[in-house]
Amino acid sequence: MSFQCPVCNSPYQKPIPEACLVCGWDLQFNLSIPEDLEQEQKRLDWAKKTWERLQTLKLSQQKPHFSSKKRLTLTDILPRLESLELQLQQATLERQHLQSLLDSILHYLKAFNSELSLNQTFPSVTDFDSNITSTFPLSEVGIDYSSLIELLAKGDWKTADEYTWQLILYIGEREAEKWLRVEDIEQFPCTDLNTLNWLWEYYSHGLFSLTSQWQIFYDLDGDYTKFCEQVGWRMGDSWIYYEELNFTLNAPLGHLPIIAWRKRACYGVGTTTPDENLSSFFSRLSMCSKPLRAEFPKT
After folding, report:
1. CA-to-CA distance for 216 and 196, rounded, in angstroms?
2. 260: which residues sit within 8 A by CB, 6+ positions away?
3. Alpha-carbon distance 288 to 192, whole Å?
4. DSSP bridge pairs for 13
5. For range 206-211, the mean pLDDT
6. What is the reported pLDDT for 109?
7. What is the pTM of this model?
8. pLDDT over 70 (residue 73)
9. In angstroms, rounded to a whole number, what is the distance separating the alpha carbons of residues 71 and 58?
10. Has residue 299 got a pLDDT over 60?
């Protein structure tokens, strides 16, 4: 016949030990009738509760404690996520700037050296010297085009157009007058004109550039009215205002940049008409050697 310890329920077979080998309870009291049964029962109840508490305490000590560690909340994570997104955006812009610089260098190498094959393999960005801009300048007058590159890369076409016009005035030393004379256009630095044209063509995937405007103007035999109708500067019988331009990629081919007028398509800038300004810029672009078409990034 088996016997259980009244405190921890450990089983025993005869001969029964004097004390429980698990909890240490005196097992001999069950073999005789105690003089004070009620007092003994209270002592047994106390022993059982004490044993149960002891087992509960042991189990809690075995479980890992997480309360001492602070749990991350959404409030903790969001600032970190925003910081990482900002760093990623900055890295993307820097990469686009470097890629644009490399493409510009290759463009000038090909444009000014007829012996280079169009299929020739060129070094990567990392193969060029850090002072590459001094060897292959994007500007003859020291213009930093990084701000324009960022605007074009973001697709902020309106701000990019306004900034392009400010650059043109600065390069032509006509900021105070806010317009260019024909002689200013005729003397406009070739490198800078090609750079402005190429950047617009590259970042718009060929939609916006002086080259696209020039081709349309040439195909229409220099008819300014028909030209404006085709590029979206004239709607029906109405010449559009600058604020009415379509500064999206849904605009017609050659819709931007605006270099022949600023207020309204039928108004010139300064003392020249818009078609005179446009013809002068196209003539200068032709003399500066028509740039190669940009190789657009895959989307």
Report:
1. 18
2. 268, 269, 274, 275, 277, 278, 281
3. 10
4. 2
5. 93
6. 60
7. 0.55
8. no
9. 26
10. no
Residue 152 CA: distances (Å) to CA of 130, 131, 179, 269, 280 = 24, 24, 23, 24, 25
Pair of tokens at residue 182: 């024909």
Could you tell me where the DSSP H helices lie in 127-242?
Answer: 132-135, 146-154, 157-171, 182-186, 190-203, 210-219, 224-231
Q: What is the radius of gyration, based on Cα positions, of the chain?
A: 42
Is residue 203 predicted with pLDDT exceeding 80?
yes
Band (265; pLDDT cuts 50, 70, 90): confident
Q: Whose CA is closest to 265, among 297, 295, 230, 299?
A: 230
Angle at 232 between CA 180 and CA 154, to 5 degrees: 75
Bridge partners of 2? 13
pLDDT score of 85: 75
Structure tokens at 11: 């089983």
Task: Please give the backbone phi and psi of residue 26, each rounded to the nearest 5 degrees, phi first.
Answer: -70, 115
Non-local (6+) Cβ contacts of 146 within 8 A are: 97
Q: How far is CA 254 from CA 196, 242, 248, in A?
A: 14, 15, 12
pLDDT winner (highest mean) among 23-32, 80-89, 237-246:
237-246
